[in-house]
Design a protein that fits this description.
Structural class: alpha/beta
CATH superfamily of the largest domain: ATPase, nucleotide binding domain
Order of helices and strands: EEEHEHEHEEEEHEHHEHH
Oligomer: single chain
Strand content: 25-35%
Shape: globular
CATH topology of the largest domain: Nucleotidyltransferase, domain 5
Number of helices: 8
Largest sheet: 6 strands, mixed
Radius of gyration: 18 Å
CATH class of the largest domain: Alpha Beta
């Protein structure tokens, strides 16, 4: 069973293909917000590198957020169009789950943190379990100070990963028992989508394209600005 993973929730855009043997090929780029221009050629590239044809894909896994509004729209639209065209089901995974999965071998509490802009972050907390991680809290949008307060109150040794943790490092590092993840773990990856998506595909934990919904957690900047416009 071959899985195509599509990741566009942050400044990074990526895709990967893989199966029971692991990830066959992947592509990631993070220079500029060019998700729409980059994604389709990237999918063609990874399929070519993996020596598979689109008709061999069994399911499409996509990051549903939370993340940047425009990036999520590009990834979800592409994933849905391909799933409908190929007549294959989909698997939706959270960007925060993907971030936490990358550091699943730590015994510390994991805070997965995505930069939400506007001085806020999206985050959720996780703990290592056999084979991966378990989410302990629901994804929320809050200020970095609120996140720091929650981690401080928790009192556990914590590993904070994601671009949100790095952007607001000065706030989080004031909490003595918090360690920041590396730049290499700053973004969710399509590789993790494939790795997490494949066992779900084996268990047939699918959804249909029309059932996939993005996890925005708040309104888009354009909608907020429109509602604040004079006369509204």
């Amino acid at each position: 069973m071959i899985i195509l993973g599509i990741e566009t929730a942050t400044m990074q855009v990526g895709c990967a293909v893989g199966g029971a043997e692991g990830v066959f090929a992947s592509f990631h780029a993070s220079r500029g917000r060019r998700h729409a221009e980059t994604l389709a050629p990237a999918i063609e590239f990874v399929c070519m590198q993996a020596q598979i044809e689109l008709k061999e894909i069994s399911a499409i896994a996509v990051d549903v957020g939370p993340g940047l509004y425009t990036g999520l729209r590009v990834g979800l639209a592409t994933a849905k169009a391909m799933a409908l065209g190929l007549h294959v089901p989909m698997i939706g995974l959270s960007s925060l789950d993907l971030l936490a999965f990358r550091v699943r071998h730590t015994r510390r509490l994991i805070a997965a943190v995505v930069d939400a802009r506007r001085g806020e972050v999206f985050y959720a907390c996780y703990r290592q379990v056999p084979g991966g991680v378990q989410r302990l809290t629901e994804p929320v949008v809050a200020s970095p100070a609120d996140l720091a307060s929650e981690v401080l109150a928790n009192g556990e040794e914590t590993l904070a990963v994601g671009d949100g943790a790095l952007r607001y490092s000065e706030i989080l590092e004031k909490v003595s028992h918090v360690e920041l993840g590396s730049q290499g773990n700053a973004s969710p990856t399509a590789d993790s989508l494939v790795e997490l998506g494949h066992p779900r595909a084996i268990r047939e934990e699918f959804v249909q394209p029309w059932e996939i919904e993005p996890l925005y957690l708040r309104k888009a900047d354009a909608e907020v600005n429109w509602q604040k416009a004079p006369g509204r």
